[in-house]
Amino acid sequence: MKCNCVELSLRFIFRSYSKLLCAVPLPVIFLSLFAALGLGSGVYFLTFETGAEYLFSPITSRAKDDRITVTELFPVNDSYSLPNRRILFDHRRVSIIFTCKDGGNILRREYLDDILQIDEEIRTATVYSEENDSPFNYSDVCSQWKGECFPNQAIEYFRNLDGGAESVLTIPYPEIVLSGIEYNTEGYFGGEQVENGQLFSAVAFTTTYFLRHAPKEDNILSENWETSVLNFLTDSGSDLIESWGFHSGSLDEAQINLTRKAIPYVGGSYAVLVCFAIISCIMVRDSRQSKPWLGLMGVVAASMAMVSSVGLLSYCGVPFNQVTLSMPFIILGIGLDDMFIMNSAWRMTDINLSVKKRMAATYEDAAVSITITSLTDIIAFCVGAICPTPAVRIFCLYTGVAVFFAYIYQITFFGGCMVLFGHMESSNCSGLSCIVNDEAKPEHEGSRPNGHAPSTTSGRTKVKQHVVMVFFRDYYAKLISHPICMVTVVFIYIVYLGVAVYFCTNIKLGLEQKNIAEDGTVAHEFLTLYSEYFKENTRGVSIIMTEPYDYWELAKQNDLERVIDQIHENYYVRSRNYTEFWLDDFKQYLMAMYNTTDVYQDTFVFLLQEHFLKLPCCERYALDINFDGNQVSSSRLILATENAKSTTDDEELLLSLRKNVDDATEILGVPVIAYSSAFVFIEQYVIIVSTTIQTLSIAVASMLVVSLLMLPNIAVAVMVTMSVASILVGVVGYMVFWEVALESISMINLVLCIGFSVDFSAHVAYAYVMSRSSEEDLSVEEKLSRAFFMLGYPILQSGWSTIIGVFMLFFSTSYIFRTFAKIMTLVMVLGMLHGLVFLPVAMAISSYIFQACCSCCGGDVDQRSGNKENGRVKTVSETIAADNLGVELD
Hints:
Its main location: membrane. The protein is an alpha+beta fold. The chain folds into three domains: 5-51 and 254-453 and 463-513 and 684-889, Multidrug efflux transporter AcrB transmembrane domain (Multidrug efflux transporter AcrB transmembrane fold, Up-down Bundle), CATH 1.20.1640.10; 91-248, no CATH class; 540-675, no CATH class. It is 57% helix and 10% strand. It has 26 helices and 22 strands. The strands form eight sheets. Strands 15, 16, 17, 18 and 19 form a five-stranded antiparallel β-sheet that branches. A four-stranded antiparallel β-sheet has the order 9-12-1-13, sandwiched between helices.
């Protein structure tokens, strides 16, 4: 079924526009350049967003809402605070992980002596403020409890040990006793080996120095101290110990460093693509039709689009970020794709026609095709721009605007350049040297709609066609339309799709923090070691009752006890004896002092405030309780987690705890929330699947609408959309082989996948069904021949140019850029596979089915009416044999 009113309207518009362009090419070129320069001046206002939490976590989330609630109820006072009560991810701190250079046991005495020495130097080192050059040390900026800096109990324990003769120390585990108080040390050791309650071996040891974050003056000093400590660790080498430092701004600094490191890759890839574009537009044996400098102009047009996008959005105050550095590769790919399509359409026109008529034919075919793909690309990025993750949103905004400008400059700046080079060709100038060539003008193919030259052997100069274009027209089309080949392709597609769907169920979720930092950096090594050795045992979670509750009533105590027991049945929550809850100890206090826990409200609150919270062992609970007159207005308990070893475990931990607290809210009748500083980052794991499915579904649906409007065949429009969906499934499934997780970075690339997969499929589909009165009676094979002749080579050029462009990123030390290169390669390979194999076979099969149905219904469907001769239909082989007379390959 055809519905080609939009297509015909566009063809008319571009045919008319091409006449205007041919009349004033230079003004159009210069107007485009001035527009790009004017918009590009906005780069002066360019700002960089480096906040890792902001970029890679959802803008709004339950975790962030909970953090606001917890911050209001339990604000942190750095002069009176404890480490497990520090609720914000960005509180000032320096964490260090120590490992042995030989990979051995860190409990060897000489190794521990090195750690103690480093700790002593860090605590006593004098640092000078960058603001006023005044000296200070750790004690001036440390977060305190009862007037003292937080100690590392394991380090204090080692300091207090008598110097013995044993070479390897053993200590009680998991609890040690200091000054008569028991402390749990599980969070200090990694890769530990325990026997009979004694720790006798560990691979890693960690310590953290907590710093003040308020007021502003203290925050600045703490920042100076953080930088000083990391510089100290870098400069002071040890023969025995490796030390890896990480502070509150390390991830943000990683964004800045990655931006700097990306510039050489962008520059190198840019240079490679320029060379590829120039070489691809050369025809060695026909200097007139060679247009290497037109290929360069295609790169210039794409560059103008990038500059315009960055400048315009900088004027609007949209920040840039390291993820958006992938945008140049995409725009170059799209720009070169459009350029190859335009150049191919020009080559198909009759060389004897005037430049105006050749441009009209070029724009009538190619401009409509690139309009379809540009529109679908823009829609895909617009859909991506509503994603809740800022990194994705900003990237899609910059890239979507750049695609729009790439399209505008393609039909204006590049079109004007085509006119100029067309006049050079008609004047018999060499495309390389731009000097007039005295050789005779060759005739060009194009008088037939399928790209074949007229069959005559006299009176014409041989036409020099590109060998790849001829291969697609004369051989590949015949091969792909053969019944045996089509059956084979269908079988291969079923296997491809089945394997992809299977692996879609096994994909890993979530962006790990270590992948934000550059490989080999201190931050990356720290986060890798932390994830391997310490992540499972060091996360505390606050369970908060945000409104007043009758804690003094026995029935309410029993309900609360039942809720807490249910929470501790959670697979990811450690046993009750690892939980800090003021009510547990207060009930023991009441039983010890009064032999009951059933007291009146006033008595309960009085004893709690005036006696219990003033006991040295219970002072810390004052950080967990808020009073409003004679009632407890809000309170919290701190529990420990376990078994959370992977991003999937993190997601399950968060979701299961939320279910626990939601159930608790119903049982207790007061709001209960669960919060940990890590939950803000883990939230991305929860939403990534649903957000990805929603975003891609909207984008694919939009593609269907555009395809139905723009393609003059409804069945083919549906197949193009199904092809896009098929490529998406393939990319997601085969990402598993490259160990790429589904997270915000790969989600960006999946949005790109829609754009690029539409490009290849829509180009071929449009060439297959494009309407001309002289082409109504072409056979299926001849339609494929025409489509492949026009677009087979440009699709290969576009696909391989993008793969070559991103190839250097495989060697990047950034996970983000390597992921981009991997997925873009998958997209290009699968896009070319669908555009050149799967979709053509699907269109051919659907055409045969349609013809069979028409025949069964009594319709008169003549597949060869366009080539009738003497009452007999010519075969494609005969047509090609005749058409190859007078044709020369290049």
